[in-house]
Write a structure and sequence with these properties.
This protein is α/β, with parallel strands linked by helices. Helices cover about 25% and strands about 20% of the residues.
């Protein structure tokens, strides 16, 4: 009870109803008028427990973050796996630090770091003898531990370790099932692609809400924005460019699963269409669907920025980078 009294939480005094006069079995319900999470604090003579609508229970003296619906509106997925620089986590830290360039994104946005398992032994890149595979798994375990230790004190960061290899598509599908109902949008980042220029998150959300049938999937390019080499029918459509609140988006039939952004609803629909092909890189099946249905509106991506504008992300090349 004394700890609850001393905690410096700023709440609208008009919606706080409490009675701190009695000491035994007392309950106080606290709500916030700004669409914030409900917090129910129950105090007894011996223990104090705080519960948020994220269903997270903490011991006495430990309090979960206070989240609004705006904090939860957009989530972030960072996919990672064994790389030669492991067990160093410096690459992922660079990517996580670059999130500061996403202007308008809540610093408390739910973030999922999903660590994929090593490829099955039958995979062409996974034909390792038993000793080599054990060594890889030991390194991956240390890598996972280092990530957990780095982010365990951030209440909005969840480190998830896969028991089987799901690849990028499977990791996206898994994360979609973990998101809370309040989350409507998702950034998908790879562990070796970091942002190098400011991204207008507020404008992206506004554009998707303004043009829900035109803008469904935004990719951040690692190269200059140019049309696909083998004919880009989407690039030259009359409505290929969208301009909203100072941000520009250019449609292309070139598809990549490098850092990108989409609505949860759109991604779930695409993954349902892809079916059993999901546990793999998404470029080929998505490209195939785009050409199969000749539908730029449903299957094409928009690159962030105007035509011929320079890149917004940098490839740190986790596959070939050592000692980073």
């Amino acid at each position: 009870l004394l700890l609850l009294r001393q905690t410096n939480v700023l709440l609208d005094e008009n919606v706080v109803h409490n009675n701190w006069e009695s000491m035994g079995g007392m309950t106080s319900n606290v709500s916030n008028s700004n669409n914030c999470s409900m917090i129910t604090a129950t105090a007894t003579a011996n223990t104090t427990t705080t519960t948020t609508n994220t269903s997270t229970n903490t011991a006495a003296g430990q309090y979960s973050y206070y989240y609004s619906k705006a904090d939860k509106e957009t989530a972030i997925l960072v996919t990672t796996n064994w790389i030669p620089s492991a067990p160093s986590i410096d690459l992922v830290k660079e990517v996580m630090d670059s999130l500061n360039l996403i202007e308008g994104l809540s610093p408390k946005a739910p973030t999922y770091i999903v660590i994929d398992h090593i490829f099955p032994e039958s995979h062409r890149d996974g034909k390792k003898n038993k000793e080599e595979r054990i060594a890889l798994e030991v390194t991956l375990e240390e890598y996972s531990f280092n990530l957990m230790k780095e982010y365990m004190h951030r209440d909005n960061v969840h480190v998830i370790v896969n028991k089987v290899n799901l690849h990028i598509g499977g990791n996206i599908n898994k994360t979609l099932e973990l998101l809370e109902p309040e989350t409507k949008y998702l950034y998908v980042l790879q562990h070796d692609f970091k942002f190098i220029k400011p991204i207008n998150h507020t404008a992206i959300i506004l554009a998707m809400k303004t043009y829900p049938q035109r803008l469904k999937h935004v990719r951040f390019n690692k190269k200059t924005n140019v049309p696909k080499r083998r004919g880009d029918v989407c690039w030259y459509e009359p409505d290929a460019q969208i301009h909203v609140d100072g941000a520009n988006f250019t449609k292309t039939c070139g598809w990549s699963d490098n850092n990108h952004f989409s609505s949860v609803e759109h991604y779930k629909r695409l993954i349902k269409e892809l079916g059993s092909t999901i546990n793999r890189p998404l470029e080929a099946p998505m490209q195939h669907k785009m050409y199969q249905f000749n539908n730029c509106s449903e299957w094409a991506q928009h690159v962030y920025g105007s035509p011929w504008q320079g890149r917004h992300i940098l490839h740190l090349d986790g596959r070939n980078s050592f000692g980073v």
